[in-house]
Amino acid sequence: MAWVTWRQHGSQAFAALGLLIALGVAAVLTHLPIASAFGHDSLSACVPPAPRTGCDIIVPHFESQFSGLVTATRILAVLPLLAGLFVGAPLIARELEFGTYRFAWTQGVSRRRWLLSKTTLLAAGTILAAGVASVVVMWWRSPFDQLEGRIAPGGFEIEGLVVPAYALFALALGVLAGLVLRRTVTAMTVTLVVFGAVRLLVSDFVRPHFMAPLHRVIAATATSAAPRDWVLSNTLVNAGGRRVSAANEELAVLHAQQAGIDPHTYIVTLGWSRIVSYQPAGRFWTFQLFEAGLFVALAVVLVLVAVWLIRRTPA
Amino acid sequence: MSAPPLVAEGLAKHFRRNDWALRNLTLTIPKGAIVGLAGPNAAGKSTLLSLAAGLLAPSQGSITVFGRDPLQSPEVLAEVGYVAQGAPLYRSFRVADTIEYARRTNSRWDAEIATELLTRIDSRAKVAALSAGERARVALALALGKRPRLVLLDEPFASLDPLAGRELLQLLMDGVAELGATVIVASHVVADIQRICDHIVLLSGGRVRLEGDVEELLESHRLLTGPRRPLGSIRGVREVVRERYSGRQLTLLAITEGPIVDPSWTVDPVSLEELLLAYMAPERLPAPRTTEGVPLRWHG
């Protein structure tokens, strides 16, 4: 089956290779000015926890200089989805659409073995390609990771182990969708929607609770709470520890302005402070392991369902 | 004694509710037979072959190939050479790739048989660029290269011109003779079946209308022609399959059980084509009747 898989999916392997080369070239080209700025301003001395003086000016300047690029890298979060759309979804749907399953599934290889060997080989290729992409992105983002951390979604979702895990999940989702829906385009659409929904669900409702978040009390007027951590919530509380509502906060500011006092000073004199709930930067790899494990487990379940269903398939 | 190549017992298949493609089909295909699976379009021929090839699951009853259920024991498919209708192949593959595919996925691949069938076809040509005849030949080479003990062909001649069809038929018969395989050819073209088959299964409306050895069937059926008359029982006739009136003439297709002694009947042997057409006709149509109060009118 290795030969069969290669014959039918070799062109996709080349497409993936082309994509990786393009990604690599783009990464190298865009990284040059970043590296030069990073070295020029000796930003490595600004890496927490002991930044030198002046960093509060240099770091925001550096960040704003490249914020456009960093925002653009978030599009890379869709890369794993390609495995589902263009490899997974057509895998069975195309055979059903063109009637070639009547040839492929009546040879000496049972269709369960056919599906299992193809999926395994394609999964290996997918992991390899996504892994390489992940390494490239990690290299590119390393200056930002040092300054801003990478446990917040912007970095977390395009680095590390989760990238191959997302790709594997997308692949399995596409395969199952193609088997159940029997149309390539429909399967692609469903793969897209379900992949997006599951990713959002996990990043918004599951990942924050992988481990109990830590809390830290900071001055009510502090701007930057925890430079490299993933801040989940940042609430203003009064001296009794009760949450201050937005309306009350505005009232206090208004009050201070009418009295001709600096609102910041006024809020401090009220005894208010901020409670920050966050996931510390040090949990990055633990969280990567949890999330990757979750998506790999989902992928395995989807493939097993497909293997179970394929014998009872076409009517 | 090995199990027969194909046994169906109470086999039924429906796709949508109350849309039965096959109903309560019981059938045993003897070893070594060349079976013509005849019937009009939508008779259930493709469905039966798909069930035998393990592509469909029965709705009721069972089907076994060499004693095994092709869906539960897909390893039996290694002994089945199946060519689906329209000979679906990967269009982007070269002929050589297609052959390689079959070689890699079948343990008993016989390159010699396949090569013999593929002379005069450029192995570097894309499948999409082949003519219908060439494509059918590639599909046949794939099926016979497995050294199957059972060959299932679904309308193999449907898209071929008569010459290519005859050539394919010859290749099929040569290959089958070498392998000693049992063959089931589904076709709605009686002439194709007539040329090669020694056994007939006629399906219509999802049921078996006629089944048996071709020679025996031709021997037991006779055409009786005589002047028009009310039909009573005729000595030597067991059952009248079809009656046809033309002018003052009456023609009967009958199953005989002895010599026809009545000299007013001219007795002729029946051709396979006539026999199949007679059984293919839907259940006897009711005689046209006028509803009272609505006079029949001539149009035109």
Walk me through the structure:
The complex is a heterodimer of chains A (315) and B (300). Chain A is mostly helical. Chain A folds into two domains: 10-212 and 280-312, no CATH class; 230-279, no CATH class. Helix content of chain A is 68%, strand content 7%. Chain A has twelve helices and three strands; from the N terminus they run H-H-H-H-H-H-H-H-H-E-E-H-H-E-H. Chain A has helices spanning 2-40, 55-65, 67-73, 79-98, 101-104, 111-148, 153-156, 162-181, 184-206, 246-259, 263-269, 284-310; strands at 214-219, 230-237, 273-279. Chain A has a three-stranded antiparallel β-sheet, with no helix packed on it. In chain A, helix 4 (79-98) runs parallel beside helix 8 and helix 6 (111-148) runs antiparallel to helix 8. Chain A starts with a helix and ends in a 5-residue tail after the last helix. With 300 residues, chain B is of the alpha/beta class. Chain B has two domains: 6-205, 3-Layer(aba) Sandwich (Rossmann fold), CATH 3.40.50; 214-280, no CATH class. Chain B contains eight helices and 13 strands. Chain B has helices at 45-52, 95-105, 111-117, 132-145, 162-179, 190-196, 214-220, 272-280; strands at residues 6-14, 20-29, 34-38, 60-65, 80-83, 150-154, 182-186, 199-204, 207-213, 221-227, 237-246, 249-256, 266-269. In chain B, the strands form three sheets. In chain B, strands 5-6-7-3-8-9 form a six-stranded mixed β-sheet, with helices on both faces. In chain B, helix 2 (95-105) packs parallel to helix 4 and helix 4 runs parallel beside helix 5 (162-179). Chain B is elongated, with a radius of gyration of 23 Å. Residues 285-296 of chain B have low confidence and may be disordered. The A-B interface holds A 1, 3-4, 7-8, 98-103, 105-112, 311-312, 314-315 and B 15, 50, 53-57, 71, 74-75, 77-78, 80, 82, 84, 86, 88-91, 93, 97, 100-102, 104-108, 139, 142, 146.
